[in-house]
């Protein structure tokens, strides 16, 4: 049995999409991650933010696209390896997504990362606020130029 906190049932992580979860960092902020399946029945957790435009979320609450073991950014089509988080195509090519450490045991995904606590399965409070419909933050200055 894995140490850590149970996040979700493994069966809730879809094979060709993502399961959105919200964690809390040491500063008390809610941070969204997407759970994706990787080889060997394992799961990875990647921050739900595209490194190209950081106000773009991969999963806006309805699941992100996963194709050929790659997480796809719907905005400009960048692809990220589900296992490593490395972007091998698109505007942020060469970037690697921020991870949270998770482990699969007893048919469930557990958070095993001391930097975060589990808040909920689903969107952050910020995302469910006034900006939720657009799936964007209120700070357009967060965009990075590539
Ligand atoms: S916002 Fe994701 S590739 Fe441009």
TrEMBL record:
A Pfam family the protein falls into: Rieske
Molecular functions (GO terms): 2 iron, 2 sulfur cluster binding; metal ion binding
Keyword Amino-acid biosynthesis: no
Every Rieske domain range: 5-111
Domain of life: Archaea
Xref: InterPro entries: Rieske_2Fe-2S, Rieske_2Fe-2S_sf
UniProt keyword terms in alphabetical order: 2Fe-2S, Iron, Iron-sulfur, Metal-binding
Region: Disordered, residue numbers: 123-146
Ranges annotated as biased composition (Basic and acidic residues): 123-136
The protein's name: (2Fe-2S) ferredoxin
Species assigned in the record: Halarchaeum rubridurum
Source taxonomy: Archaea, Methanobacteriati, Methanobacteriota, Stenosarchaea group, Halobacteria
């Amino acid at each position: 049995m894995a140490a850590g906190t149970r996040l979700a049932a493994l069966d809730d992580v879809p094979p060709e999409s993502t399961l959105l979860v919200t964690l809390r960092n040491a500063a008390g902020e809610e941070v969204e991650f997407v759970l994706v399946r990787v080889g060997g029945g394992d799961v990875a957790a990647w921050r739900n933010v595209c490194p190209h435009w950081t106000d773009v979320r991969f999963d806006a609450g309805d699941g992100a696209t996963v194709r050929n073991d790659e997480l796809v950014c719907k905005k400009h089509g960048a692809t990220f390896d589900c296992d490593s988080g490395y972007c091998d195509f698109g505007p942020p090519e060469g970037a690697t997504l921020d991870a949270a450490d998770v482990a699969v045991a007893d048919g469930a995904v557990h958070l095993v990362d001391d930097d975060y606590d589990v808040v909920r399965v689903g969107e952050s409070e910020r995302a469910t606020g006034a900006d939720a419909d657009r799936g964007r933050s209120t700070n357009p200055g967060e965009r990075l130029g590539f």
